[in-house]
Amino acid sequence: MFVWDFIVSVLSWMGLFKKEVRLLLLGLDNAGKTTLLRMLEWHNGTAQPYLSTWFQLDFFFVEEITIGKLKLVTFDIGGHQQACKVWRDYYPAVNALVFVIDACDKQHLPESKLELDLILSDELLKYHPVLILGNKVDLPGAASKQQLFNDLGLNYSVSGKDKTTHSQLESHPVELYMCSILNRHGYEEGFEWLCQYID
Ligand SMILES: Nc1nc2c(ncn2[C@@H]2O[C@H](COP(=O)(O)OP(=O)(O)OP(=O)(O)O)[C@@H](O)[C@H]2O)c(=O)[nH]1
Ligand SMILES: [Mg+2]
């Protein structure tokens, strides 16, 4: 079943995105992906009903949500190694990626780095913008932005929050935003940043 055929849509969340976009939401277990989906639904208010659909794809569950004109897709597959294989099959069908990291779960940062490295080094994804959300900054003990930068080895790959145009970049734009999805703080700026790279 080609579940991706209907992912293409127009993202109009909060009026920030008015472009056609297919967005893939990734991250390890417990990072905050589902919470982000629920928050996007909350931002949408009750004006437009949303639809949440689950698909089973081999051993994995796929959740696609439709909020008004926005369609987002995520996997309930956690950070297991075989997940990469599944994500990869979806790369050609998406315009941008959002990678959520639990900034408090320092023990699993190396695992996040591994997943992220695979994404960032993938030829198929060379020009895809990647928004990294360092989540749960509301909790004591959350890694600082600098620490995440270092631990994820991002120092030389992020594009910076300037207005470097997509065509000026040698590779895909990557940026890290710290946030608390639960407190609805920090991720909107990240989506605004992402928006500028979606042609
Ligand atoms: N303190 C705090 N907790 C958060 C935040 N975002 C998510 N959580 C909590 O983290 C836990 C995991 O969040 P989920 O959204 O279920 O994580 P997930 O990435 O969907 O996890 P999987 O479905 O297992 O891959 C939940 O208990 C959330 O309430 C945040 O910003 N701050
Ligand atoms: Mg989830």
From TrEMBL:
Name the domain of life this protein comes from.
Eukaryota
Listed Pfam families:
Arf
Q: What class of enzyme is it?
A: hydrolase
Q: Which InterPro entries match?
A: P-loop_NTPase, Small_GTP-bd, Small_GTPase_ARF/SAR, Small_GTPase_SAR1
* Binding-site positions, GTP: 27-35, 79, 135-138, 181-182
**Record's NCBIfam families?**
small_GTP
The protein here is known as: small monomeric GTPase
**The species this protein was found in:** Daphnia pulex
